[in-house]
């Protein structure tokens, strides 16, 4: 149903290779937390202060390795994630951001976000964040119900979150996101709606509302197994079943309805914002902007090359120490762009370098762009690939429109409400043979 023949391949490739993107989003990974949550499969975990010290020393060396090699780029957004970045000494965060500013060209008034878990910040930490230029806080609340929080393995209470939220407000943070999670063990539609209304009463600028996914290798996976079947012998979850698919769907539909009634626009499948407060960093992922990941296991996409840093902590620290040898200093001094540094990588910090084919890029254009409420631009597809979107995906587009899953409005293509509900099935139609 999709068409990409050899006749126009070289013409498309030549056009793409001539294009240069100036924006480069930065993601900085802090892999430490006080306790790993039972549902979490991120690259994170507890660590003592000495390990943390060594990690941040290595991270700063990785950042400095790009000095002088990123002249083609400017940075509009910085996102500090984890793990729990707020669980470490705030001065590490400040030093990292100072180093980033010394190495990269930062746009005026960049969006600088940090993930914060309730109970891990105080007035001193938040003031350090503010002085370091952080202007967006993302609170990982997940639920306003303390019983649900305990079942998730969270170590904070809703009351601690409220205290931290008001503290951040009082200290002048005017762009705050709150993460919430539905389809939790023992959660009902009523308890989910109560969480939504409690959060709405706080009037945050942004709300991310995700449905729980049982990830392999987590304690939750051991309890629930395949198809969300928990083990009866597990006393912790014994009487707390997961909501079924129908209940999960009702939660999703009510989320959309309640948040939109309160002035939050859904701009991506799981993200809602007041006007002017969409997360610029996340939007850049969905619109194909290049990004560079710094830190343990951090993923990147630079000049159509995808890769990630090594994922073993001690190996990462040892590898970063190689950046300060005379040989490495000389090599990076003569590099003219970040892409050259990535391809040379003689210290071995990067893994799984994958040069994206034109097919890969076209697929990602559709997968990521159609997650957004605004959808995609047909003209921008042509600008990116020098070929009409209908030449490549015409049959799929016509089929999805006919089945009321996709809407065509002038230059725009976007998922219908029904298309959003079954987005995974819809987006899979854009795989190129």
Task: Output the keywords.
433 residues, 42% helix, 2 domains, TIM Barrel, single chain, three-stranded antiparallel sheet, alpha/beta, Heme chaperone HemW, Arc Repressor Mutant, subunit A
Low-confidence runs (pLDDT<50, min 5 residues)?
12-19, 227-239, 330-336
Strand fraction equals 15-25%
What composes the largest sheet?
9 strands, mixed
Q: Please report the number of helical segments.
A: 18
Distance between the termini: 9 Å
Instruction: Give the overall form.
Output: globular
Number of structurally distinct domains: 2
Q: Give the C-alpha Rg.
A: 23 Å
Average predicted confidence as pLDDT: 87
Please provide a written account of the structure:
The protein is α/β, with parallel strands linked by helices and 433 residues long. It folds into two domains: 20-286, Aldolase class I (TIM Barrel, Alpha-Beta Barrel); 358-430, Arc Repressor Mutant, subunit A (Orthogonal Bundle), CATH 1.10.10. It is 42% helix and 19% strand. α3 runs parallel beside α4 (123-131) and α7 packs parallel to α9. Residues 18-265 form the Radical SAM core domain. Belongs to the anaerobic coproporphyrinogen-III oxidase family. HemW subfamily. InterPro entries: Aldolase_TIM, Coproporphyrinogen-III_oxidase, Elp3/MiaA/NifB-like_rSAM, HemN_C, HemW-like, rSAM, rSAM_sf. Keywords: 4Fe-4S, Chaperone, Cytoplasm, Heme, Iron, Iron-sulfur, Metal-binding, S-adenosyl-L-methionine.
